[in-house]
Write a structure and sequence with these properties.
The protein has 449 residues and is of the alpha/beta class. It has helices at residues 23-33, 49-54, 100-108, 131-152, 171-188, 206-215, 249-252, 264-269, 304-310, 378-389, 393-398, 412-415; strands at residues 4-7, 36-40, 58-60, 68-70, 85-88, 112-115, 198-202, 220-222, 242-247, 253-255, 274-276, 287-290, 321-324, 346-350, 355-358, 366-368, 418-421, 424-425.
């Protein structure tokens, strides 16, 4: 009997239109590898039921024949079936409270769980991700928010003409819109009141690469973090370019000990020995884009206390917009107090009340915190994701999960991502036992997926 996989429809959000496998890749799995693919019917995904049928792929409601189910986002508790293998972004590796009940249910049913987030090579680099497209969409949305904020302040600017990423037909159309912005900046320059326009990017991974790819559509000059404070003061600045600076760990933190030296691996192992020095840059940034992984053990980039000080006495700091692509709630950017969606992508954080208001008007920074950014570029992000996932599907579909973990024959990249085997936490993930039973929270995390 052919190994059979099911592609589940996405129902976590009405904005979620991505697919883990495209029609072309599903067809290729059947033709070249003998893997039967069943796609659950959906009226929302970017690739229609008809697209899959035309590719020779079965489309139906019932996925009970499939021993392996692939999806993009989390799956409701009532959907899981005993003994099956599930492949999706589980969002459990930090012990996220809102997903502990889901993990517990999968354990009770003896399921196998493979999490895309932990599919890595020997150096720990992620292999299956949406990060680049989160960066692309996030930067488009951030520039849109910046343009709208300036317009509300009565400052005409070339970014006003931009739309959110999901309002463009595809990435090419968005790039064409940015090309027009570029021409206006090069010809007419930016308003003097916002010059120099400095975009700070925290992080240099997959998300950051998407951000910088998008920025390259505009006239951009890169400067080092240590040059930010002097730009427009000791260093001459131009109205016809944007300035970009990328912050690495050594730029964002410093040792607590007066005689200490920064060492990257030491910082990862002992973050308590370091403190944030990021506040020194904030007064000089126009836009901050957060593209870093964060955990509560690490220092923050932006604190509520800093924002309160910056907006004291009704002052309006240079930093108007924060594009929090990573979207860890009250994480690296503490004023990211909630996630948003493409329908209501931004809010203003009011430092006086510790409350938010939808939109881009009022005192306080504008925060873009869409937690499913790649869904705003559903076709392009799905094609790239599917291309990589397809290479691992035959091994997953044909694996015998009934054998003990140490005898389970899977590619090492996939075996490293196996969180549950036969309903039990695998050795690398047994630390999650300490988080089980803590479910019930409703804060979400993970804007880069």
């Amino acid at each position: 009997m052919k190994p059979t996989i099911g592609v589940r429809r996405e129902d976590k959000s009405i904005w979620e239109r991505r697919v883990p496998l495209t029609p072309e890749d599903a067809r290729d799995l059947q033709a070249r590898y003998g893997v039967r693919v069943i796609v659950q019917t959906s009226s929302n995904r970017v690739f229609t039921d008809r697209d899959y049928v035309r590719a020779g792929v079965e489309v139906q409601e019932d996925l009970s024949e499939a021993s392996t189910i692939v999806a993009v986002k989390e799956i409701p508790l009532g959907i899981f079936e005993s003994g099956k293998t599930y492949v999706f972004f589980a969002h459990v590796i930090k012990g996220q409270p809102h997903n502990m009940a889901m993990l517990q249910r999968m354990m009770e049913l003896g399921c196998n769980l493979i999490d895309y987030e932990k599919v890595t090579d020997d150096q720990g680099r992620r292999l299956i991700f949406f990060g680049r497209h989160a960066g692309l969409a996030g930067m488009i949305d951030t520039f849109w928010a910046y343009g709208q904020r300036l317009r509300w302040e009565g400052i005409p600017n070339p970014f006003m003409q931009l739309r959110q990423a999901h309002r463009y037909r595809d990435l090419n159309q968005a790039m064409a819109a940015l090309a027009q912005v570029r021409r206006e900046i090069e010809t007419d320059g930016l308003p003097a009141v916002i010059t120099p326009l400095v975009v700070g990017i925290a992080g240099y991974g997959n998300v950051s690469s998407g951000v910088q790819e998008l920025l390259a559509c505009l006239p951009v000059v890169e400067i080092a973090p240590e040059e930010v404070a002097g730009l427009g003061v000791g260093i001459e600045a131009s109205r016809h370019v944007l300035y970009k600076t990328v912050f690495k760990e050594e730029d964002m933190v410093e040792p607590v000990a007066p005689d200490g030296r920064f060492e990257l691996q030491d910082y990862y192992r002992h973050p308590e020995k370091y403190r944030s020095r990021f506040e020194a840059y904030l007064p000089h940034l126009s836009i901050l884009v957060n593209a870093i992984y964060w955990d509560k053990m690490y220092p923050r980039l932006v604190t509520k206390e800093y924002v309160r000080r910056a907006y004291r006495d009704k002052r309006s700091p240079k930093l108007r917009v924060i594009g929090d692509i990573s979207c860890d709630i009250e994480g690296a950017v503490e004023v990211t107090v909630r996630a948003t969606d493409p329908g209501n992508p931004v809010f203003v954080y009011d430092p006086e009340t510790d409350q938010t208001r939808p939109g881009y008007q009022g005192p306080g920074p504008v925060v873009m915190a869409v937690d499913i950014l790649p869904s705003e570029l559903p076709r392009e992000s799905s094609v790239e994701f599917s291309r990589v996932l397809k290479t691992y599907i035959p091994a997953i579909a044909q694996a015998d999960f009934s054998v003990p973990f140490d005898r389970l024959d899977l590619p090492p990249e996939i075996k490293r991502a196996l969180i549950l085997h036969q309903g039990k936490l695998t050795p690398p993930y047994r630390y999650l036992e300490g988080f089980l039973g803590r479910g019930g929270g409703n804060k979400t995390q993970g804007g880069k997926r």
